[in-house]
Model the fold of this input.
Amino acid sequence: MMDRLPPGATLGMLGGGQLGRMSILAGRQLGYRFQVLEKNVSCAAGMVADGVVAAAYDDPAGLLELARRVDRVTLEFENIPAAAVDLLEQTCRVYPGRRALEICQNRGREKQFLREVGVPHAPFALVRTAEELTTALEWIGPDAVLKTADFGYDGKGQVRLKAGDDVEAAWAPYAGRAAILEKWISFKGEYSILCGRNAAGQVFAYPLIENIHRHHILHLSISPTAVDPALEREAGEIAEALLEGLELVGILAVELFLTDRGWVVNELAPRPHNSGHLTIDAHVTSQFEQHIRMVCGLPPGSTRQHSAACMLNLLGDLWQAGDPDWAAVLQDPACKLHLYDKGAARKGRKMGHLTFIGDYASACRSRAEESFKRLSGGGA
Done:
């Protein structure tokens, strides 16, 4: 299938955050131009784009204006109304595609998709009332996680349930909304694998990445991992099956738990992923360049990893006492600073990241942890 959009063309970006920003910076190296649709004209992606359409994602006039300006559209996060894609596709192609978007933006549809594809996942039930939650707990078990079906990320909209918890009280914040109850999975580690596909069916996959979270937000990403090569190959096979099942064009992040019985797929993201930021500095081709390549119908770049790496997320908490001392951190000559130009720093807001590269992943992680202690004043 010929679907090539040559350099010099203009791409539309739905969403104005840091993922859009880094995708645009990578795309500029390839010679593409960009228009962003986002209500805030001073958004992180808009600062590096050729123009911004100041509109909501469900604003027909704004969507039509974006379509008028561009040759093709992609997105930086999955919480885009499917109706917006339908409208845009009347005049231009939109990738990763409606099917991938519709499945991945709703946990119920996503879990059903995992079941249909036949990949390992946690037992789950769709619940709409406290009574349905009670029934679901009877067969899933009392040790479980309750999650909103729509628009959840970074641990938002979810709560851990244990034996003896008050079901009515647990359900109260979800009343009037659909939710997913999942069996709690005891895991040995959290991982992600980034893969992608273009419309011609050419695919790529990066080496496995280990992820460490703090307060439900990604804290560190480390690669390469100590996972057995046979298990890593199995994770790659799972990712490729998901790519094909979603009919996705672009990049896909597959979040995984490693258990005593092997892999369990946790969630999917049909766009660049926080854990893949280390690919900018540690791989021949970054996840952002790959995303643009796939959307534009170009062949995938090499995913070879030339350096071990550890990525440290920089949250707004680090700005509470003023601007961090970047000069002190950058005394490490193999530390790379990436700031997103997002304006005011707020607690929990992703403001940037640091990537530490070297010969050994364990040493990179130690340097990242030491820098975090220094930036946060020694706090844990």
The chain has twelve helices and 18 strands. The longest strand covers residues 250-259. The chain has a mean pLDDT of 94. The radius of gyration is 21 Å.
